[in-house]
Design a protein that fits this description.
The protein has helices at 8-31, 41-50, 56-75. The protein has 77 residues and is mostly helical.
Length: 77
């Protein structure tokens, strides 16, 4: 319908990107278990909302960078 051909490789790549996004969001959610939480519930909600419309590759990198920073904050508490 769109003129794009679906290949096994492209499908595999899309699945991997989606799985990476899921892992990045799970990592961020796990960091909220720390006391005190290094990120507010509102900010975490906004990140989850952005996941629906942002470019998946850029989103994955940004969330993982954010999680790295939050892990540092938790270690330094």
């Amino acid at each position: 319908m769109t003129g794009r051909k679906i290949t096994s490789e492209k499908l595999r790549e899309g699945i991997e990107i989606a799985n990476d996004k899921r892992r990045a969001l799970q990592r961020l959610s796990a960091l909220r278990k720390a006391t005190p939480s290094p990120i507010s519930g509102l900010d975490a909600l906004l990140v989850n909302q952005i996941a629906f419309y942002d470019d998946p590759l850029r989103f994955n990198k940004s969330v993982n960078d954010l999680s790295d920073e939050l892990e540092d904050r938790v270690k330094n508490l």
